[in-house]
Amino acid sequence: PIAGVAAPTDIRVLPVMYDTNGIRKRTFESGLELLSEDPFGDWPVRGPRCLAWGLKFMKEHGGTPTGWHQKWRSDMKLAATDGGVEFHETSCRLLETGICYDQLNLANLAMGEGLMREVMCTEERWKDRALGSGETRLAEKALFMGEQKRADLCINPDLIAHTGKELEKE
Predict the structure, then answer these.
(1) Is the pLDDT of residue 137 over 80?
(2) Are 50 and 158 in contact (CB under 8 A)?
(3) CA 162, 163, 166, 170: dihedral to nearest 10 degrees?
(4) Which of 26, 88, 132, 149 could form a disulfide with 122 if both were Cys (CB 3.0 to 4.6 A apart)?
(5) What global pTM score does this model have?
(6) Which tens digit of pLDDT belongs to each residue from 93-113?
(7) What sign for the dihedral angle of Cα 79, 84, 85, 86?
(8) C-alpha torsion sign, points 114, 119, 122, 124
(9) Helix 51-62 crosses helix 65-76 at what angle (to 10 degrees)?
């Protein structure tokens, strides 16, 4: 930096907070409130940006990403050894660590978007457990009534629409 000139703000990081013992720590909720999605002309991930939506969903349904993982795994009746479950847990832990310890504005990081897409992809893989045969009619009714999702899964409806349009092109 040039003497007397403030360095530009890095839109990839949040202001760093410390606890009373001098340890870097931010609550998930406070980090979520500060997230911003800034446009980039060279953003490498195609389709809608899903990270902020996904983290808000996790807060509403599980309190934190790791809380969401525990709820999702329990609701789906999945074992830790079932396909993708371990990576789902790791991705949720990394997302939470990125906000609470590293204090990153994950919504401006392609890596954060990639982790969130992996979470959504895993939940898509297991969605039939959430939409069991008895619930399918209720889920369809919810869509007809204007709700944006068929089940309480962390799968962005805009990503579903984007994926459907892309598949139609093929």
Answers:
(1) no
(2) yes
(3) -170
(4) 88
(5) 0.85
(6) 999 999 999 999 999 999 999
(7) positive
(8) negative
(9) 70
